[in-house]
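Retro notes
What went well: the complex prediction finally ran end to end.
Inputs used:
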Amino acid sequence: MDHETIVKTVNSIFIERFELDESELTPEKTIMGDLQLDSLDLVDMIVGLQQKFGIMLRDNPEVRSVRTLGDVYALFEKLAKEHPEIEANIR
Amino acid sequence: MLFLRNLAFYSVTALWWVVYWLAVAIPVLAVMLLPGPRRRHWLRRFLLYFGLATVRFVWRPFFRVRFEDRTDGSRAPGVLVTDHRSAIDAFLVALPGLNGAQTVNGWPLKVPIIGRFALAAGYLDVTGWDFDFFLARAKEIFAAGDWIVAFPEGTRSESRTMNPFHSGIFRVAQELHVPVYMLCIAGNEFMPDRKFRFREFRDLSVRLVGPLTEEEVSQCATAYVLKNKVFRIMSGELASMDAELDHEKNI
């Protein structure tokens, strides 16, 4: 899966679930600082990502180290390499 | 002069606390015999009357509070969200006369007597409880026909700019399908400051707006969307209230 598809898919979660404008979604933005999601919002974000990519993230320790939107893109690039089937799962 | 006014304010307040709680001691003891939810409902009433009398009568020589109800008159139990500039907000939220359990940031519940009383009245600890336990207690409060009074900023702002909201209470409103009312409190930044000193005594403005109905609450995709919607409405109201207060002060 290419980088552009991952960025577009991840961003769609933030647009649909948090009504953020696409122009706000740049890789350096911190999720809890710049985008002002709190711990409960993170649960919504993870649920949204799981549904969109069709992959479980709850037990993935790398999710805990995600700080910026760029970290989310990087995480899914890595997951896409480890699980090529997720490209077909994208809804 | 300001020091003496502070001294007078806290002396009168302390005296009033003793008088009120001694006066209601016997009814409170009787209420303690009731089963859990009814006991908590009635204890909240004692706290509501305490807050109302404190703001309307005891503090009147020090400052006046103008209260406006700009709702459509509906009073379905729900969440009452308020901005949080200073410590007296915990009293000012009594002005709409809604019997409610306040969300509390842990430590005030440990204050001798009043903190223990608040805990017994079903006040909600937003820092010490997990979400499911919090939700169960919230359900009980709404079932009793009462409100939850929430301070989603989490801590006092001491300024005219609201801190970002936390999502928790908005998720409660969505999960339990209740409306969200908004109580905007203006004029009380530094009344008192974080060290509980009044840097000035000025008249305040409190305005009840909304509600966002159950349907409007449910239509928000997430609690994040709802909290931002409420934040925008309250920011607009507070800006106009601050401007009115400044205008009145300059006349």
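What we learned: The longest helix of chain B spans residues 223-250.
What to try next: split runs per interface for comparison.
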